[in-house]
Q: What sequence folds into this?
């Protein structure tokens, strides 16, 4: 049977059995809508959690700890991460980048922001030094994220004495300096927007306002604290810092300075030992599948993974997605059994028609393909209808969330992700489910002898 004639017969039979066709398509549509809705929800949440909050291609490593840490603390604590350890990690197969981090080992306080908030804000400085190579290729302004202390410095007594653009007069050394560049993480911005800004009546930082914050300067006093005594060594001194950008490689809570600054400051305020070892390193792999192997090799070096919660979050999303998938698949299975029942009944009612087809030259394969074609049509119509229902339900949920759910960190514009692969997979599944349900009835119809079919009443 030619394809054109086969398609016309499938359409004619679908129109003739319109009621059974629609009921079967609706049954499949309900299961497909449920499957598509929850699959898109799991995909959307996973994209936010494992793409924007956690990064599954990066792991943070720190010196291994054990039950002997209490005793080890009297001997200086766990062995710090050295340049030799960093070199070993960079040599591992599959490692794309290794970014050492060094935490501020002394107290510091900061104030500023009157030009944005109407009055100064005061806070303790939570920060770390980040190797500038970790953010190579990212665009920052008006200064690069790098050590800007190199080069000659002009003598000064006041800021106007500094003629080079962007410099100020450090009053304690009477030298012109550029502000220390810093970066903050997207997580910190989201935390400010979702929690801090609403409770203090402050404006949210959108992309436009974030661009305006570039170049924002404030004052940091090294070796001093609002909460306690000054550092054990070193004289407190003030330095200006400048926000040059937002990067997901910055420390999640706090600010990231270029590593050379923190190394010098730690040596001055906390001793040489605090300036030699790194607090942690962030290892980025070229392929996500290499994470497990790289972590195992890092443990052999004496490091362990900092628990960020990414693994638990990913597992929770997967388990919830599987639960909803099982419910959706159960609905599809019931619909498939209903299709099988419908086609068994259709074969019994259409015996004479099948006999006529066989008598005029249709082969057993032609009869089987005709019935399977009708089932495939039900699958395509039901699958498309299910996808449409799922998309409408997702739109309604997103609309309700935007209108009634208050802002929170990393609140997405949409909780769903209907990727082309997901849509194609759902349609394909609907098609396969319907064809599978009709397969045995179609085989039974194909085995009917023309004489027996024509004599049936």
A:
């Amino acid at each position: 049977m030619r394809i054109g004639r086969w398609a016309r017969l499938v359409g004619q039979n679908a129109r003739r059995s319109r009621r059974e066709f629609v009921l079967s398509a609706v049954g499949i549509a309900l299961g497909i809508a449920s499957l598509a809705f929850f699959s898109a929800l799991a995909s959307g949440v996973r994209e936010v959690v494992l793409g924007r909050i956690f990064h599954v291609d990066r792991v943070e490593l720190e010196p291994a700890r054990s039950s002997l840490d209490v005793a080890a603390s009297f001997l200086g604590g766990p062995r710090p991460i050295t340049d030799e350890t960093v070199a070993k990690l960079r040599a591992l197969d599959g490692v794309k980048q290794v970014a050492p981090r060094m935490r501020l080992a002394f107290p510091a306080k900061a104030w500023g922001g009157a030009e944005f908030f109407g009055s100064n804000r005061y806070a303790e400085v939570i920060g770390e030094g980040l190797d500038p190579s970790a953010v190579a290729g990212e665009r920052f302004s008006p200064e690069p994220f790098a050590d800007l202390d190199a080069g000659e410095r002009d003598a000064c007594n006041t800021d106007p004495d500094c003629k080079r653009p962007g410099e100020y007069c450090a009053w304690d050394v009477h030298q012109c300096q550029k502000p220390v560049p810093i970066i903050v993480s997207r997580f910190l911005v989201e935390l400010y927007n979702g929690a801090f800004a609403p409770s203090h009546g402050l404006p949210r930082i959108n992309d436009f306002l974030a661009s305006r914050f570039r170049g924002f300067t404030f004052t940091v006093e090294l070796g001093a604290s609002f909460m306690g005594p000054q550092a054990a060594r070193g004289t407190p001194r003030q330095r200006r810092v400048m926000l040059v950008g937002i990067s997901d490689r910055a420390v999640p809570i706090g600010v990231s300075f270029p590593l050379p600054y923190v190394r010098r400051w730690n040596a001055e305020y906390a001793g040489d030992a605090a300036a030699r070892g790194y607090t942690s390193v962030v290892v980025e792999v070229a392929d996500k599948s290499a994470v497990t192997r790289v972590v195992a090799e890092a443990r052999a070096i004496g490091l362990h993974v900092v628990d960020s919660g990414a693994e638990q979050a990913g597992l929770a999303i997967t388990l919830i997605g599987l639960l909803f998938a099982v419910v959706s698949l159960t609905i599809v299975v019931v619909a498939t059994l209903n299709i099988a029942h419908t086609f068994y009944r259709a074969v019994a009612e259409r015996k004479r028609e099948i006999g006529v087809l066989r008598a005029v030259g249709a082969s057993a394969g032609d009869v089987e393909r005709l019935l399977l074609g009708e089932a495939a049509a039900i699958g395509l119509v039901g699958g498309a209808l299910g996808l449409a229902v799922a998309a409408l339900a997702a739109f309604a949920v997103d609309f309700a969330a935007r209108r009634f759910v208050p802002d929170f960190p990393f609140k997405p514009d949409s909780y769903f992700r209907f990727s082309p692969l997901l849509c194609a997979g759902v349609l394909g599944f609907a098609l396969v489910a319907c064809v599978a349900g009709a397969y045995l009835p179609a085989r039974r119809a194909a085995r009917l002898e023309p004489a027996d079919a024509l004599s049936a009443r």
Q: What stands out?
A: The mean pLDDT is 81. The chain is about 55% helix and 15% strand. The radius of gyration is 33 Å. Residues 364-404 form the longest helix (41 residues).
